[in-house]
Amino acid sequence: MTAQLLFFYFGGMAVAGAVVAVFTPNLVYSALSLLMTFIHIAGIYILLNAEFIAAVQIIVYAGAILVTYVFVLMLFNPEQEKRYFHKQYKIGAFLGAVVLFLMVFAGFKTEILSKGGPFTVEYVEEIGHTRAIGNALFTDFIFPFEIASFILLVAMFGAIILAGRGIKKPKGPGGRVDLSSRRKAKEAIVGER
Amino acid sequence: MIPLSYYVTVSTMMFVIGLVGILIRKNFLIILFSIELMLNAANINLVAFSHHFGEVDGQVISLFIITVAAAEAAVGLAIIIVLFRRKATTNVDELNLMKW
Q1: Helices assigned H by DSSP within chain A
Q2: Residues of chain A neighbouring B82 (CB-CB closer than 8 A)
Q3: Among A40, A185, B33, B37, whose Cα sits 20 to 30 Å from the Cα of B72?
Q4: Residue ranges per domain, chain B?
Q5: What are the CA-CA distances from residue A116 to residues A113, A125, B2, B35, B59 (Å)?
Q6: Which residues from A are below 8 Å from B45, CB to CB?
Q7: Which A residues, 137 through 156, put their C-beta within 8 Å of a C-beta on chain B?
Q8: Segments forming the whole domain that contains residue A124
Q9: Which pTM does this prediction carry?
């Protein structure tokens, strides 16, 4: 009973945060409600006895990815238009309704046969969740693990090359920034305002 | 004991919200947020089924999905930075240079 109440709280808050994140015009509110969604999804993972995934969810999603988004948001602060919906919003809403109906229908119609695997709740509690995940990760999934590290490397190179292109190297002895040019640039910006 | 269909329902709702967000919003950042929502919905499904079947494979794959989401966020934000420097907008309607 307690577990069901907790599930309704976590699931409801996650879905509510997702709705606010998609439909609010303000980008900062959108990012904060996305944070709410991520934290409540971590609660759902804990209800599923997956503590390690919950910790990774909070550290990576709420701690790293969302902070990067908010950082870019604050860097640019793009102004929000009056009409922030795309003109194809009717088609989008219709497609969303159809997909929602089909998927809920399929989810309740399908009979899922329970095949009891070796990792029952008691067994995982006995050896520890992190250890169970680590054993699987470094034996059965060692090749995907290496590919994941390669993906991270490529993404790092890609992000640095894309975002760092066009930045001029500072001139002057020893790569030091010429202060007079910087002062001039600052005066130009102040003069514009 | 919470039935599996509850988890599937929550995950379906989050996936559809992300899909609708991609289709109806104009801002590039919100589209990236929606992609994160869809990846999270897939993660909930994976962990729920893995718990249901008594295996850890689904949870390991959800770790890989989190990795890919981090890489996608980094590259997507770099693209937004380049676009904003060139066009001073994050509106996907105005990025029609390659449209025939």
Answers
A1: 2-23, 27-47, 51-56, 66-76, 89-109, 121-127, 129-139, 142-164, 179-192
A2: 162-163, 165
A3: A40
A4: 4-94
A5: 9, 16, 17, 33, 16
A6: none
A7: 137, 140-141, 144-145, 148, 151-152, 154-156
A8: 115-166
A9: 0.84
Instruction: Report the topology of domain B4-94.
Output: Helix Hairpins (1.10.287)
User: How far off is chain B from A171, nearest CA to CA, in Å?
Assistant: 22
Residues of B in contact with A107 (CB under 8 A): 5, 8-9, 12
Q: A56: domain CATH number?
A: 1.20.120.1200
Interface ipTM = 0.92
Owner of token pair 């060139």: B86
A96 is a domain residue: no
Number of independent structural domains in chain A:
2
Q: Tell me the pLDDT tens digit for each residue of B32-89.
A: 999 999 999 999 999 999 988 888 889 999 999 999 999 999 999 998 888 888 877 7
Residue in B54, B50, B47 with CA at minimum distance from that of residue A116: B54
A180 belongs to a structural domain: no
Q: Does B86 touch chain A (CB under 8 A)?
A: no
The answer to whether A35 faces chain B, any CB pair under 8 Å, is no
A4 with A72, same domain: the answer is yes
